[in-house]
């Protein structure tokens, strides 16, 4: 399953996406990392696909290559014939490289011949290609040529596209639906022939109910309009369908959209079996349900148990992997309350008595192969979730408990609060923090009523201005990943959260922790808070006095920024849009030295650090005097220089890059020259062999480096450190 963490469109109607903070800790960042791993949007190209690509060393000749991995619109390719040998792997940009579908050379009378390096490895290359291509998956032509070239799967679904949607109550019945909007893969659909927005549906594009146009007919399934929605004549429905189909066939939705759909597994349920399930109508509790119909080996019907005479049955179509279905006794084993069936006389529900009373059997555990997967979610993680009673609305949500594969979510910001809603870990209605902002979709406003209890001790939103100068201590790339605003809430809570974010965004968190200890004023009304930092496996903590009243927040923020030698507007009550009043956009780490002239003492740092523990401050300053010498190393290869920053006074010295050229413009040779100039010079050959230029360099991450360069963890981390230096310099000098 995939969810986006990529920037797309801007929507002026987007509401405030900040977080109101009452209890947000390191789980916030763990949740983001978790979603990035689980919900990363995949490229339309997949590893193992074959295509034809120009030969590097032979003009006007081509050869078949295999996609090894993808990174956005970049493909790592290997010519067929190299086997498992990675030495000739190379990167290319699908938007600029000469790539063609298999068979293109034959159709255009182009020469297909292997690279010179492997020409002698096989005596019959024609026979080799026949074996290599038999049963393989080729890259679709529409992704290599034309308007769809290089697009992600989600981007292929445009407004007006037609799909077929399975009926909610009859698994063998389909009807066409038109895409009204596509928000990062979350589709708003309307049935063809039914133009009432009240009946629009929201589904993620991977929902198994969605199929390509014509799928029902090809599989001998029924095509029927939705029932009970309109009094239209049959001929009117047919006319609307024919008209929509004719238009859709002129520009059909690429089948690549459905390549990531999960295959349905066969089930083992039989009519009459009992189980537990998250209530399909009100997903705030779990209730007993029964299997009332089996359609085929894939689909069955579940009905919520209701023993009252006047009950209106609640049915839902399920398959083996449907979210929210659980074995009997699951609630008892996990300490969760089970809703008593309506009309069941006994006040204390017991499964043994209930099965005996109804003369039924429990569905065996073999029917629930994945009942305990939690996917790494934890209590107090934050995410964004669909309001189950208003599918068009997305809310900030906090996980209040995790039981097996179920999450209990508290939706923030609702006018009328709801009980904690229950979702499956595989639900397509949960998204990572920042998803709404990235896709230009409004996130429900957070209510400010809590802050009105005592306005003196509560502050409004504090903004993190990503474009402002971040100073020598903070990593601009990490700052860019922080939310744009924090609060409203209690002053001390909001400020502590922002300070924790800044510490976690530092090159050397321990150093920032030390600097923050020095921010103090005897006139302030403060409370003591414990701040924590981790660096190179060691944990540090220190007590800091944080202001409690709203009238002192602005000055406190200014003092912190001054202490960290960053722009005074990096965070605080002022929001910076295009231009900072401090004119910090044009500054670099070597020029923005306004605060460096001040000499300050430093308290001790550690578990038992106390206020005033600053023994022999003069001696410490004298020792540091020699370290504050600025050193520069220059090279004429790609135009970059390294400088030492005062941030490293008590930690290991770390060179800072100042680039004279934008790394996005670096050629492969420039990248190789840079790597050669570092302590990873032995790896420079790999960059040459894989044609990694500046753009590709900035996209490399630790997992990519390990996988594509076949490096062990140690050398990979060492290399990524050098790449991170380039990224930091890029963010600070050119990203604006």
Automatic annotation (TrEMBL):
What keywords tag this UniProt record? Answer: Membrane, Nucleus, Repeat, Repressor, Transmembrane, Transmembrane helix
Q: Which residues cross the membrane?
A: 21-41
User: Which PANTHER family is this protein grouped with?
Assistant: POLYCOMB GROUP PROTEIN (PTHR12247), SCM-LIKE WITH FOUR MBT DOMAINS PROTEIN 2 (PTHR12247:SF62)
Residue intervals of the SAM domain:
663-729
Protein name according to UniProt: Scm like with four mbt domains 2
User: Which parts form a coiled-coil structure per UniProt?
Assistant: none
GO CC terms on record?
Answer: nucleus
State where the protein is found: Nucleus
Q: Where are the MBT repeats?
A: 1-115, 123-226, 235-341, 349-446
Q: PNT domain spans which residues?
A: 647-730
- Supply one GO molecular-function term: chromatin binding
């Amino acid at each position: 399953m995939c969810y986006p963490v990529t920037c797309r469109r801007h929507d002026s109607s987007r509401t405030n996406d900040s977080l109101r903070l009452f209890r947000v800790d390191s789980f916030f960042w763990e949740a983001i990392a978790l979603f990035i791993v689980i919900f990363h949007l995949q490229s339309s190209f997949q590893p193992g696909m074959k295509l034809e690509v120009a030969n590097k060393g032979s003009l006007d000749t081509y050869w078949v290559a295999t996609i090894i991995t993808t990174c956005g619109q970049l493909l790592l390719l290997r010519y067929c014939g190299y086997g498992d040998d990675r030495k000739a792997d190379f990167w290319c940009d699908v938007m600029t490289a000469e790539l063609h579908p298999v068979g293109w050379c034959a159709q255009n009378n182009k020469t297909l011949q292997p690279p010179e390096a492997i020409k002698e490895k096989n005596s019959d290359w024609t026979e080799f290609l026949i074996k290599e291509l038999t049963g393989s998956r080729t890259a679709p032509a529409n992704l290599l040529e034309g308007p769809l070239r290089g697009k992600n799967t989600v981007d292929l679904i445009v407004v007006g596209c037609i799909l077929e949607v399975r009926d909610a109550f009859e698994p063998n019945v389909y009807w066409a639906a038109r895409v009204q909007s596509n928000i990062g893969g979350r589709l708003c659909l309307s049935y063809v022939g039914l133009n009432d927005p009240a009946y629009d549906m929201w589904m993620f594009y991977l929902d198994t109910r969605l199929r390509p146009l014509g799928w029902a007919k090809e599989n001998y399934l029924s095509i029927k309009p939705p029932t009970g929605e309109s009094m239209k004549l049959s001929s009117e429905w047919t006319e609307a369908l024919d008209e929509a189909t004719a238009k859709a066939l002129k520009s059909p939705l690429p089948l690549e959209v459905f390549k990531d759909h999960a295959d349905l597994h066969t089930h083992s349920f039989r009519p009459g079996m009992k189980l537990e399930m998250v209530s399909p109508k009100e997903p705030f509790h779990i209730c007993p349900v029964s299997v009332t119909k089996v359609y085929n080996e894939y689909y069955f019907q579940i009905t919520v148990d209701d023993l009252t005479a006047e009950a209106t049955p609640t049915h839902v179509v399920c398959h083996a992997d449907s979210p929210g279905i659980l074995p009997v006794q699951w609630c008892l084993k996990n300490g969760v309350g089970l809703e008593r069936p309506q009309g069941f006389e006994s006040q204390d529900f017991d499964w043994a008595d209930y099965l005996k009373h109804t003369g039924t059997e429990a569905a065996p555990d073999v029917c629930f192969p994945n009942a305990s997967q939690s996917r790494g979610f934890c209590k107090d993680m934050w995410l964004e979730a669909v309001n189950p009673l208003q599918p068009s609305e997305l809310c900030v949500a906090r996980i209040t408990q995790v039981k097996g594969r179920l999450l209990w979510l508290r939706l923030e910001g609702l006018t009328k609060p709801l009980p904690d809603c229950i979702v499956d870990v595989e639900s397509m209605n949960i998204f990572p923090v920042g998803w709404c902002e990235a896709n230009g979709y409004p996130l429900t406003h957070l209510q400010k009523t809590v802050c009105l209890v005592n306005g003196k001790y509560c502050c409004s939103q504090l903004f993190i201005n990503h474009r402002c100068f971040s100073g020598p201590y903070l990593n601009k790339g990490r700052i860019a990943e922080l939310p744009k605003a924090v609060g409203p809430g209690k002053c001390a809570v909001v400020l502590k959260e922002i300070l924790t974010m800044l510490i976690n965004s530092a090159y050397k968190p321990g150093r920032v922790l030390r600097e923050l200890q020095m921010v103090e004023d005897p006139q302030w009304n403060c409370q003591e808070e414990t701040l924590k930092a981790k660096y190179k496996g060691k944990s540090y903590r220190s007590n800091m006095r944080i202001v409690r009243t709203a009238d002192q927040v602005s000055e406190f923020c200014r003092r912190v920024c001054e202490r960290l030698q960053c722009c005074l507007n990096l965070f605080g009550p002022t929001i910076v849009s295009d231009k900072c009043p401090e004119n910090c956009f044009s500054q670099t780490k070597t020029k923005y030295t306004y605060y460096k002239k001040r000499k300050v003492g430093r308290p001790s740092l550690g578990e038992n650090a106390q206020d005033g523990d600053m023994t022999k401050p003069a001696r410490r300053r004298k020792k540091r005097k020699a370290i504050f010498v600025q050193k520069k190393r220059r090279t004429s290869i790609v135009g970059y220089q390294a400088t030492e920053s005062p941030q490293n006074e008590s930690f290991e010295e770390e060179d800072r890059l100042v680039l004279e050229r934008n790394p996005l413009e670096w050629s492969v040779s420039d990248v190789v020259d840079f790597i050669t100039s570092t302590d990873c010079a032995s790896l420079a050959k790999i960059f040459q062999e894989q044609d990694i230029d500046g753009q590709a360099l900035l996209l490399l991450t630790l997992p990519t480096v390990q996988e594509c360069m076949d490096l062990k963890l140690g050398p990979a981390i060492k290399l990524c450190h050098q790449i991170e230096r380039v990224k930091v310099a890029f963010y600070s000098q050119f990203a604006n």
